[in-house]
Amino acid sequence: MSTNGKRVPITVANGDGIGPEIMDATLRIIQGAGARIDIEMIEIGEAVYNRGVSNGIEPSAWDSLRRTKVFLKAPITTPQGGGFKSLNVTVRKTLGMYANVRPCASLHPYVATKHPKMDLVIVRENEEDVYGGIEHRQTHDVVQCLKLISRPGSERIVRYAFEYAKANNRKKVTCFSKDNIMKLTDGLFHKIFDEIALDYPEIENEHWIVDIGSAKLADTPEAFDVLVMPNLYGDVLSDVAAQITGSVGLAGSANIGDHCSMFEAIHGSAPRRAGQNLANPSGLMHGALLMLVHIGQGDIAELVHNAWLRTIEDGIHTYDIYKDGISRERVGTKEFADAVIARVGQKPQHLPAAHYAPHAKLDIDARPQNRTSKKQLVGFDLFIDLPTGNPDAIAERLATLNVPGAKLTIIANRGTKVWPNGDPDTFWSDHWVCRFEADGSEFLPQTTIKLMQAMLEAGYDVVKSEGLYTFDGERQYSFAQGQ
Ligand code: NAD
Predict the structure, then answer these.
(1) Is the residue at 366 inside a domain?
(2) Relative to the CA of 87, which ligand 1 atom is closest?
């Protein structure tokens, strides 16, 4: 029985493709085990997109989400073509779901995998990084995407990972980043990881550069326990991790926010399998287990998880994991759900039984930010669109601009220094950056306006500008390659 006697209202969406079948199976399983939930249905996905709602969710559905604060969502079919916005990204970002949590464990020898001892959880930052989708085309040849990493966003996700490890008796938290290249953005994420790790001396911590870390994850996943990483790496690697357990059809994920949270399978709507009673409901069911823990019904999650493990052990498998010699019976979505329900109260005989720590939602306080460091403008980067540029000629022309207080220090192209002393082998696109720094005295903000004005008057197409700042005297902008 639930430790929490109260029924909890949740919002449910059936989604598209295999969505309605796996949702029906999931709800039957968790309700069959005694989940104390009251369901509010909303419609999302294809039908809503087709009614002309560009993000696939009706304005009225938000009322339900804001009321229940808990969303169990089946996969949807994302329409092809421009003009449509991702429903997942809209819901996550609108409702501030900053943490994506995805447990991935192998089920050897019952589900074929090369990694019999794998049991890890990926905690992915869910709102920042390049997923702001802030993109611009600035010249004929060059487009850009802004990667934004914030201190509060990173602190929250890293602390969530350590708190998750503590609550679930996990022993180690690993951070992946690429701070050997992105020293400011990934560097901040890594620095915050090191700072927060100090608050958890009982939990081992380590950092891997994401490329070699990913290779290790794909090769020896049993070396990892809880992993925390920025959005893009987490998006890619959580799919890899789920796949190498044996099937993407098995994993669920939680999107956790301070107020609202969303629970789902990691896979999509598999339209080719829809309506045939074929799909494996396990991924969505695992999403529902994360939801039960979140609403304080971890005891029900444990009952369901153990019944499910027993079903898998008994060789009752849907087509995606069915294997001659290992499986005993090939079943459809409905029959699989019936088999799990029939085993509620049983435990696996060989696989480790699931145990859910009696905790509910992890509360991660936003810490007050220290904004006392001294910020100083020390220069200005001006980006220009120049299809047939030559760095020496640009430098010569800029030397005649005569803006007091600023001197041209470098010209770079796609991040590589091309003046002074550029290498003749460096490729030049039409996207140049001209860096101006203080000429002797302080660099005044007004100087940036004068510079831009002078460059426009000199006939340059200025497409973008960036201030160069120090904080407490420390340089907080990158050098160009070769500088
Ligand atoms: P998909 O995950 O839907 O399916 C890929 C393949 O995996 C399927 O053909 C099927 O063979 C298998 N598969 C997936 N789930 C399964 C299950 N539960 N049981 C058995 N087999 C399963 O990926 P896709 O085909 O690239 O995408 C289909 C649609 O889903 C697209 O419109 C995509 O945008 C959308 N999508 C939605 C979500 C979401 O709503 N969270 C996530 C990913 C993709």
Answers:
(1) no
(2) 40
Q: Is 459 exposed, middle or buried (0-12, 13-18, 19+ CB in 10 A)?
A: exposed
Question: How many Å lie between the centroid of ligand 1 and the Cα of residue 248?
Answer: 9
Domain count, the chain: 3
- The residues lining ligand 1, judged by C-beta closer than 6 Å to any ligand atom, are 18, 22, 75-78, 88, 249, 264, 267-273, 279-280, 283, 320
Q: What distance in angstroms lies between residue 27's CA and the mean position of ligand 1's atoms?
A: 20
**Tokens linked to 234:** 């987490």
Q: Whose CA is nearest to atom 23 of ligand 1?
A: 268
Confidence of residue 133 (pLDDT cuts 50, 70, 90): confident
> Do 382 and 342 fall within a single domain?
no
Report the C-alpha gap between 36 and 15 in whole angstroms: 22
- Tens digit of pLDDT for each residue in 415-445? 999 999 999 899 999 999 999 999 887 899 9
Asked whether residue 217 falls in the same domain as residue 259, the answer is no
Phi and psi angles of residue 71, each rounded to the nearest 5 degrees, phi first: -125, 115
The pLDDT confidence band at residue 363, using thresholds 50, 70 and 90, is: confident
**Whether residue 256 sits in one domain with residue 222:** no
pLDDT band at 87 (very low <50, low <70, confident <90, very high): confident
363 within domain boundaries: no
* Interval 49-58 mean pLDDT: 89
Q: What is the pTM of this model?
A: 0.92
For ligand 1, atom 20, the nearest C-alpha belongs to 279
Residue 455 belongs to a domain: yes
